[in-house]
glycerophosphodiester phosphodiesterase (Brevundimonas intermedia), 342 residues
Amino acid sequence: MIRAIVTAVALLVGTPALAQPLIIAHRGASGERPEHTRAAYELAVEQGADVIEPDLVLTRDGVFVDRHENEIGGTTDVGDRPEFADRKTTKTIDGVPTTGWFTEDFTLAELKTLRAKERLPAFRPGSAAYDGREPILTFDDVVAIARAASTRTGRTIAVAPELKHPTYFAGIDLPMEDAFVAELERLGLTGADAPIIIQCFEVGPLERLAARIDAPLAQLVAGAGGPADRPDMTYAQMITPEGLQAMAAYAAWVAPEMTLVLPRDAEGRTTAPSALVSDAHAAGLKVVIWTLRAENAFLPAERRRGEGVAEHGDMAGYAAAFAEAGVDAIFSDFPALARESP
C-alpha cells in the first residue's frame, strides 16, 4: 500500500525520479491477451502494472473507442463480417495510404458487434487463442476497469490514454479536443492529481489541452520524423535541451522511443545511454520510454536468447538497464517481466 501511494504521488506531481520506474501496461498485457481488451487490462493489473493504456480513436457518432489505430482490420474480426465488406477502403492517414476498415465509418453500436483478435499471431499464438472473445471497449469502459481494479487491489491504477491522429480526425469533422475535455470533466480526470497521463505524438493538441486542464500530459517522440501537425519540426529538434525546455511549458512527461535513450550500434547492441534522460530531468520533465517487448525480434542483440525471432529473450534485464539509465516509467506489452527487473 505504501508503494501504491508513493507511486500515485510521483506519477502526478513533479517529484524526483522514482527508484523503480512505473510500469505502464502497453494496451494492457498485450503480449499475452489481444490488445485493448478487458482481459488484457485485468491481467496487467494482476501482474503489477501501475497504469493501463488505451489508445483513443473516434466512431462515426463521436464516441472514443479503444483501438491502436482507426484502421481495425488487423485487430478485430471485421474482415470476416460480410455485412461490413463494402466498408473496406483506402485512406491517407498522416500522409500514409492505408487500406482497411476505419472506426470513423462505423457507429459505436456496429463496432460493439465486432470481436478483438491478436495483432501479431505469429509471435503470440498464446494470445491468439483468445481471439473472438472480447468486444471493443470505450474510454469509459477502460476508466471503469481502472477504478474497479483500484478498489479491488488497494493500489492506484491510473490510465494513460493516447489521442491518435487528432489532426486527421479534425479534418473529417470529428474534432477530438472538445469531446475529450468533456469526457475528462464528466469522469473527474482534469485535475493535477488525477490518475491519468494523456499522450499524443502531435504538439498542438497537447498545448491546447494544457491551457484547459491540469492533468499530466506526455509528448510522444518517435525515433525519426516529426509531429503530423508541425511539418517544420522534427522529433530530433524536440529532444535537444532547448526543445525539452519548450516542451516543459505544456507537458509533464517526454515519451521517447526506447532507442533514443539506449541507442543501438550497427550490430544491434545497446551503447551508452544518451543525454536525453538527464536533459529532460534538467528541464523538469519525467521520461517514459516505449515499448518493451519480450520477443527476440524487438530486443537488442545482447538480450536475445535462442534462435527464433518469436522466442523470449532477457526483457527483464533490458528493463533494468532503462531503470539504471534513470527513466521514470516504462511502457511494456509484458508488465510482469518489466516488474521482475532488478
